[in-house]
Each structure stands twice: as structure tokens, then as C-alpha cells.
Amino acid sequence: QVQLVESGGGLVQAGGSLRLSCAASGRTFGTYAMGWFRQVPGKEREFVAGITWAGGSTDYADSVKGRFTISRDNANNMVYLQMNSLKPEDTAVYYCATDRRFKRPYVSPQGSEYAYWGQGTQVTVSS
């Protein structure tokens, strides 16, 4: 059983920053890629950022490139999403997820490739 717990969401003004955290337990964390996704009510879930199992490669949605940074701490089973220069369109529920494939050598942006998901944390950016 894998558990993922996100934290760090909240209300912030446009241009501000937030750092999301995801604590993982129940599986060998350091051998699976991790991803962050977000969803707005009425819209499909979208890929935000991902990082390979050893942290050697990252990938980002075009909409967040240059503003968001994903990182991981395998010693403490944590993954982070640093979000800078936030915009109102970043408002969503943010989810972390763990890849279903052992040591995938690249980041997949497909939600179907992720096996376990957290409960989400709300990020609201006011204009």
C-alpha cells in the first residue's frame, strides 16, 4: 500500500510563490519516477511536472516552464514543487503521483502511467 500526502497549498496573490510537498510511504520511493498534476473542476487533469527516480531528469508542462521546479529527496521520501511567479490560471487542485513502472528512465506526462495518487492540495492564485 502506497500513501502520498500533499501539503503546502493555499491562497496567494499573482506573482507570489508556494512550495508544495508530497510525503510518500509504503514503497521503495527512490526507484519510481514522481509527477505533479493539477485539475480544475470541469476540466481534465493535466500534467505539471515530473522527475525520474534518481532525479536525473525532469520535465515540465509548457505552461509552467521557467516558473516551477520539481525536486525530490529520496532519503526522506519527499518530492517538492516550487512554484514561482504564480498566475491566476495556476489555480487548481494539485496532486502528486508515483509512476507504475520501476525505474522508468524518462518522465511520462500520461496520468495513466501513474499508479498511486495523493488526495490533492488546493492552490488558489488571486489576481
Question: What attributes characterize this protein structure?
Answer:
11 strands; mainly beta; seven-stranded mixed beta sheet; 127 residues; four-stranded antiparallel beta sheet; globular
| Beta content | over 45%
SSE order in H/E notation?
EEEEEEEEEEE
Distance between the termini: 40 Å
Give the proportion of residues in helices. Answer: under 10%
User: Averaging pLDDT over every residue, what do you get?
Assistant: 96
The assigned structural class equals: mainly beta
Number of helices: 0
Describe the model.
The chain is an all-beta fold and 127 residues long. Helices cover 0% and strands 53% of the residues. It contains no helices and eleven strands. It has strands spanning 3-7, 10-13, 18-25, 32-39, 46-51, 58-60, 68-73, 78-83, 92-102, 114-117, 121-126. Strands 2, 4, 5, 6, 9, 10 and 11 form a seven-stranded mixed β-sheet that branches. Strands 1-3-8-7 form a four-stranded antiparallel β-sheet, with no helix packed on it. The model has no long low-confidence stretch (mean pLDDT 96).
